[in-house]
Design goal:
The protein is α/β, with parallel strands linked by helices and 481 residues long. The chain contains 18 helices and 16 strands. The N and C termini lie far apart (72 Å).
């Protein structure tokens, strides 16, 4: 018996289709996971017409979990009340396994993990395998102590995974949420569950994190806001806008490029900084489609500036979850073709979490995009433990020096030494450098002596929409004449 992959976005959308009450939706999905697509087409009639039509067009998104019965399940079978519990498990650094063993064998590992979950649960809960090496387990009723015991067994079992005679230790993280009847919105549940999983992976070394107000340290309004933004990210990108900040040539001061920066604005919330929501979205499957929208918008906008400046380019941030997708390469190339942009007009900036990906995988991605004429930059260089080792291992075109090194640099000899060392290293390896955080002319003039390639910061302009950016470009060009 196999468990087919169920796209995470579709998993949550199906909850919305079934019931507005999240607890009922979980219970219903759990029972409906007995039925495969084939069985639905052979006369199971209790699904709504909308749901039948939806799944009829989405053969890849099957939800067969535990096939115990072929019978039709009547709506009266569904639980009307009671607390449900969700446990979300992620396999950490699974991209390393993909690189080491290949996609086909990695799928066998995931199938093995799914079977082990079924064996361990023994009817206590229902298993959904999601894309991105993740699983969701739903429980009708389970105590915190029982949940911890189940998770401990999962951790021990996964550490001793063996497939076709090969021992493959799997490291996991997990977040859980005990749902109450008042929880009506899937977005609220989803954002909390994702938060708990990320907290487990980043802060607690894979220990089970159960969501509560003390864990999140955030108020209810912020989670509501994140839920709304996530909904927009999965429905035509409503409220999302692209802003751009100039990148200037250090020697001439002329603006030669720009960085694309995401913003979100919708009434009654107003303008929301990406610092509020980007960490959440980067951990969600929606980041792939949103990232494609960002790239398409940025490459469309850069065409408007060709007449103003020859060789103008745009830097676009890339999240780890985007880079890991097998179709990311083709998506980038297709968007270039759609927009008519030239490869040399694009620089992909690898964000912080990309550093956690397998080095061999990253090298393959960098080499591929280089072969297509696309540049690759390492964002926030100098921060974190792995940025230096990555720069030594991979042929980046540009290192973006984090603005934390620039604050009060005139009064901090250690910062001066660090920035000078980075620029010197980059020059010797034919790598460009961009120093961020240039706030005024005094800092710009001071930084110029270090010899970086580019400067970026509020001295040149704050991030602005493309229409205002064109005005900034003309104003700065006039100043330099």
């Amino acid at each position: 018996m196999s468990i087919n992959t169920y796209d995470e976005q579709k998993f949550w959308e199906e909850m919305d289709i079934l019931f507005p009450d999240i607890v009922k939706a979980i219970t219903s999905l759990a029972k409906k996971s007995y039925i495969s697509i084939t069985n639905l087409r052979n006369g199971v009639t209790w699904w709504s017409e909308k749901t039948m039509e939806y799944f009829g067009m989405q053969e890849n998104y099957t939800i067969r979990g535990q096939e115990k019965s072929k019978r039709s399940i009547h709506p009266d079978d569904l639980e009307e009340s009671g607390q449900g519990t969700l446990l979300k498990i992620g396999l950490d650094q699974f991209s390393h396994i993909n690189v080491m063993y290949g996609a086909a064998f990695s799928d066998k590992i995931l199938n093995c993990a799914a079977q082990e979950l079924l064996r361990l649960l023994k009817g206590k809960g229902y298993v959904y395998r999601l894309s991105g090496a993740k699983f969701v387990i739903s429980f009708k009723k389970v105590s915190k102590a029982e949940l911890q015991q189940i998770y401990d067994e999962i951790v021990e079992t996964f550490e001793n995974t063996e497939v076709e005679g090969k021992k493959i230790p799997l490291k996991v993280s997990a977040g859980a949420i005990f749902m109450e009847p008042y929880m009506k919105e899937t977005n609220a549940v989803r954002s909390r569950l994702t938060y708990a999983l990320n907290h487990s992976r980043l802060e607690h070394h894979g220990e089970l994190v159960i969501f509560n107000d003390e864990v999140c340290g955030s108020d209810e309004n912020q989670f509501e806001l994140i839920g709304v933004i996530h909904q927009c990210a999965t429905h035509n990108f409503e409220g999302f806008r692209m802003f751009y900040q100039p990148i200037a040539d250090t020697k001439t001061g002329k603006i030669r490029g720009m960085e694309a920066l995401l913003r979100w604005e919708l009434e009654p919330y107003g303008m929301v900084s990406p610092g509020v929501f980007m960490e959440w979205l980067e951990q969600d499957p929606c980041i792939f489609d949103l990232g494609n929208w960002i790239l398409r918008t940025a490459l469309t906008d850069v065409q408007k500036l060709r007449k103003e400046t020859e060789g103008f380019f745009v830097n676009v941030n890339v999240a780890a979850a985007q880079l890991e997708r097998r179709e990311f390469r083709s998506a980038v190339m297709n968007i270039l073709k759609e927009t008519g942009a030239k490869p040399e007009e694009l620089c992909l900036e690898l964000t912080e979490r990309c550093r956690d990906l397998d080095i061999h995988f990253l090298r393959g991605e960098v080499e591929f995009f280089h072969s297509q004429g696309i540049k690759i930059a390492l964002d926030d260089f100098g921060t974190g433990n792995s940025s230096l080792s990555l720069a030594l291992e991979l042929p980046f075109d540009e290192l973006k020096v984090d603005m934390s090194f620039i604050r009060d640099i005139k009064q901090k000899p250690q910062n001066q030494a660090m920035v000078q060392s980075i620029v010197d290293y980059a020059r010797r390896t034919n790598t460009e450098t961009c120093i961020e955080g240039i706030e005024d002319k005094e800092v710009s003039d001071y930084i110029e002596k270090f010899g970086s390639t580019w400067q970026q910061g509020y001295y040149y302009s704050k991030p602005v929409p493309i229409e205002q950016f064109e005005e900034v470009l003309r104003e700065k060009a006039t100043e330099k004449e």
